[in-house]
Each structure stands twice: as C-alpha cells, then as structure tokens.
Amino acid sequence: MDIHEIVESEKHFFRTGVTRGVDFRIDMLKKFRKAIIENDELISAALKTDLNKQPFESYMCETGLLLEEINFHIKRLKKWSKTRRVKSGIGQLPGKSYVCPEPYGVVLIMAPWNYPFQLSLDPLVGALAAGNCVVLKPSNYAPHTAQALQSLIEEALPAGWARVVLGGRQENEAMLDCRFDYIFFTGSPAVGREVMAAAAKN
Questions:
Q1: Is the pLDDT of residue 82 over 90?
Q2: How big is the chain by its Cα radius of gyration, in Å?
Q3: 31, exposed or middle or buried, with CB in 10 Å at 0-12, 13-18, 19+?
Q4: CA pseudo-torsion sign 142, 65, 186, 131
Q5: Distance in Å from the first CA to the final CA of the chain
Q6: What are phi and psi of 10, to 5 degrees?
Q7: CA atoms within 13 A on the CB side of 63
Q8: Which of 19, 79, 148, 163 could form a disulfide with 46 if both were Cys (CB 3.0 to 4.6 A apart)?
Q9: For residue range 123-159, what is the model confidence (pLDDT) as tens digits?
Q10: What pTM, to 2 d.p., does this model score?
Q11: CA distances from 44 to 5, 37, 59, 109, 116 (A)
C-alpha cells in the first residue's frame, strides 16, 4: 500500500466515527499500555542495537515516561472530553455557548532518532486520546526501533487508527505531499522549515 493510500484509509477510518467514543479511546489506551509492557524486552533490545541504550536507561528515558503519559491520559480523558458551558459574548445573547472538544482528523507524526521510542509514541498517545487517526513516521536512523514500533502498533491498535510508515527522505517527501489535518514534527530547525513550507501548501 503506498503512502497516499495509507492516508486515505486513515481518513476513511476517521469518518466512521469510531474514534469519537471516549470509552473506546480509553480501552485502546489500556490495550496499548499492556502491549508496551509485554514487549518491553523487544523495545529494550531495539534501543540497545540502535543507540546502545542500557535497559535501565531505556526504561527511565523512554518506556517509563510513555507509560506515565498513558496513565495520565486515561485518568483525565473523560473530564477533558466533556462539553463545558462558557459565557456568551454580548452579540450572542440571549443564547448559550459551549466548548465542545473535537479531534482534528488525521495526524502525521515525524519523530527524531535520539529518543526514537518516546518521541514517537508520546505525541501518538495524545493524538489517539483526542480521537485522531495517526500516521507515524519514525526516523530511519533508528531502524530497529522503527521496526519495533511498527510491530507494537500493528499488534495493539486497529489498522485504520494508527499506521507506521518506514523509510527515509523519499517517504518523508511523499508524506508531506499528502493533506494532513495536523503535523507533529520533532527535529532540526532546517528540516522543520521544510516541513512547515510543505504543510503551508495544504
């Protein structure tokens, strides 16, 4: 499946409305947390191969932080998702005004190589918790971790909700040609300017 087809499949999944259910999102976050815990050795081995991180460092700087982030979202998601009443401006009187949290749609996450697990999945957890669908592009400079991320996400999450695209510059350029509703990029200012320029077209 090429990148444009992957993005279109994500958009189709988002339009089904499945991700809007708060209970569904919480259940998926719990399932994802369980998969991370069960695959701790796979993740640790990938980080050791790519960056020579020891198991303790991998947990302290990558996996442990992510598990805390998931717990934080699970605990607060129902409150964050509630419609809340706000004051109406004078032009809207005698009407009533509300803030209704809504997902953006399909989100692209472009992650760096130096904390390849945590900086890939931390924004993914926030995006999924908010009801978005995600296309994740991990760094090709940490290939074993990228493979571990792909296995983990395929195991834990529905295919239309989150997908991992492996590859390098060519795949990055192809993704930036697609129309996303939000882009989360972590990396150098030089590449950031390229991402912003491509995003501005859409």
A1: yes
A2: 18
A3: middle
A4: positive
A5: 23
A6: -65, -45
A7: 27
A8: 148
A9: 999 999 999 999 999 999 999 999 999 999 999 998 8
A10: 0.90
A11: 32, 11, 8, 22, 12
Q: Give the mean pLDDT of the chain.
A: 92
3-state class (DSSP) for residue 148: helix
Tokens standing for 86?
């706000």
Model pLDDT, residue 188: 87
Bridge partners (DSSP) of residue 134 are 107, 162
Give the pairing type, strands 84-86 and 97-99: antiparallel
Cβ-proximal residues to 93 (8 Å cutoff; 6+ apart), any chain: none
Give the number of other CB atoms < 10 A from CB of residue 119. 23
* Nearest-angstrom CA–CA distance, 146 and 133: 19
Considering Cα of 75, then 77, then 82, then 86, what sign does the dihedral take? positive
